[in-house]
Amino acid sequence: MHRKIRELILKCANTSKASHVGSALSIVEILEALYFNVANINKDNYNNASRDRIILSKGHGSLALYVTLALKNIIPLTSLDKYLVDGGVLPCHIDMNSANGLEASTGSLGHGLGIAEGFALSNRLKNIHSRIFVIVGDGEFQEGSILEALNSIGSLNLNEITVILDNNKFQASAATKDVADIDNYEKIFSAFGFDVQSVDGHDVDLLIKALNKKSQKPIAIIANTLKGKGFSFMEDTLQSHYMKIDDEKLKQGMSELEVVLS
Amino acid sequence: MRMVFANTLIKLAEEDERICIITPDMGYGILDNFQKLFPNRYFNLGITEQNCMSVASGMALNGLKPYVYSIIPFVVHRCLEQIRVDVSYMNTDVKIIGVGSGFEYGAAGATHHGTEDMAMIRALPNMTICAPGDNYEMEEIAKLTAKTSVPTYIRIGRHNHGILNHNKIEIGKASIIQEGKDIALIATGNMLPVAYDFAQELKKQGYLPMLVSMHTIKPIDKELIVNLIDNKYKIYTFEEHTIIGGLGSAVSEIIAESGKGVEFKRIGINDEYSHIVGSAQYIREQFKLDLKGVIEQCC
Questions:
Q1: Do B46 and A151 lie within an 8 Å CB cutoff?
Q2: What is the rounded CA–CA span in Å between residue B90 and residue B127?
């Protein structure tokens, strides 16, 4: 499935000439594990109160989410043609009103955890037992509101919340370590009362195992990923954040995918 | 006025189990009864204003009616971007309760003064803004806004005022407190009693000013203002807020676009912070927002 997701991401990025492609490519396996294996969310229940919820707090990775929702038949596959083109439907940063299955409008960083906490607290009042997953970027982790939310979620021990940190090691303008050198996210999450695991964020089976772990505490998964994963001209590079996918790159990308596929 | 709000909310919460309170550690002595009666619906989430606003948005998306309560600069300015995205842009049913409008927290200093909040929230689409001028307006606005599902900012004062408004209140419709001719005094929030006293002074001088309580700043009652313009009233606005972006600005926009000139003056805070040490009343006097100062500015 992740190969299909990557193929569609690259095609949409080519049509729209959009940026943030590298940020979408690093979360492909995370989304596959969540939407196709772990979370109770599908085309029939995406409006039900009891559904699991997935919030892409790093809203600039939206393209990966749109593609995944299309492959889950929650939004039509044809809507991908309307990603970030004039008069289109799906915007660069997520507008929850633009399509089905979008839990919150994100794009401004550091909002998703608080919204997840609101979902959790209200679910408890309504006696609904479902899980809430939030995907946060490692650059996003610099936002002060992240600290506020972790402190609060940990203090209230909202163990229905699972935070997945997309540790792709680059932000918009620099390597993350050159801006905020946090070499131990585990310690930070632990200190706030989370049950922390660290996994290869491109290994779907390991992600599923980590996501399915039963815990009395809120869960944090440090998903070690590569920005621009899957394509030689983007993988593990800062440039993949703003790189545009021209026809030549699309051709090369498809060829690389076919190599992988064969 | 805070207690009127808190007591009214308790009555509303008895009828509507969706109502809950989120506070970033404010409301000591004010929200205690709500906490006692509805412990499951009272959330002190710690001194985390940004997170509180996002949590409120998540609750509202999930069908609850959260009220976020704090002192104005903390519940508006500190988390303005969360209000913009999670409340205004996402159009969530979050009620923001800002206490200490204007110089109410006088002695606490400018960090605690609520003097630019209406300007900030007015610029955000989907928002309703209410600023009650007496306890009757406070109670009615609390009741009426609880029935709506739109994001709303309620800006309230700290001390008790006498009842001035005896009309039926409607959100978005100004209340005429006193009919008059030629001169219209339009006041909001803490300035309503001052404008009322000023109106009595003008009466002594032989004028008959109309007194209007503009308890809803957004949407503003355009019809009433256009009517005043058409009838060539001299218009004064009174707000304990910067004259940029609040009531005075809202009224002046309508005057400017009417194409009809009328005499007009904004009474408020003239684009500055208070660096004055002293009580709310003392600061108001220095800013000429007490009766004496208003007479000096207007006459």
A1: yes
A2: 11
Give the phi and the psi of residue B176 in degrees, each rounded to 5.
-85, 115
In a domain, B111, yes or no: yes
Cα nearest neighbour of B83 on chain A: A111
CB-CB neighbours of A77 under 10 Å:
12
As a whole number of angstroms, the distance between CA A111 and CA A149 comes to 9
Residue type, A179: V
Which DSSP state fits B232?
Answer: T
- B216 and B278 part of one domain: yes
Residues of B in contact with A113 (CB under 8 A): 51, 54
pLDDT, tens digit, 9 for 90 and up, residues B248-299: 999 999 999 999 989 999 999 999 999 999 999 999 999 999 999 999 999 8
Q: What is the CATH number of the domain that holds A29?
A: 3.40.50.970
Verify that B6 and B151 share a domain, yes or no: yes
Q: Quick check: is A49 in a domain?
A: yes
Q: What is the pTM for the complete model shown?
A: 0.96
Q: Is B298 within 8 Å of B236 (Cβ atoms)?
A: yes
Contact B48 A111 (CB under 8 A): no
Quote the domain boundaries for residue B142.
2-156
Q: Please state whether B27 falls in left (phi above 0), alpha (psi between -120 and 50) or beta.
A: left
Does the beta carbon of B41 lie under 8 angstroms from any beta carbon of chain A?
yes
Is B61 in contact with A125 (Cβ distance < 8 A)?
no
Nearest alpha carbon to residue B207 among B198, B215, B216, B220: B198
Asked whether B154 and B130 are in contact (CB, 8 A), the reply is: yes
- Whether residue B169 is contained in a domain is answered as no
Task: Report the distance separating Cα B282 and Cα A236, nearest Å.
Answer: 62
pLDDT digits (tens, 9 = 90+) for A206-259: 999 999 999 999 999 999 999 999 999 999 999 998 999 999 999 999 999 874
Tell me the C-alpha to C-alpha distance, in Å, between residue A198 and each of A137, A148, A157, A166, A219.
15, 22, 20, 11, 11
Per-residue pLDDT of A156-176, as tens digits, reads: 999 999 999 999 999 999 999
Question: Contact A101/A93 with Cβ under 8 angstroms?
Answer: no
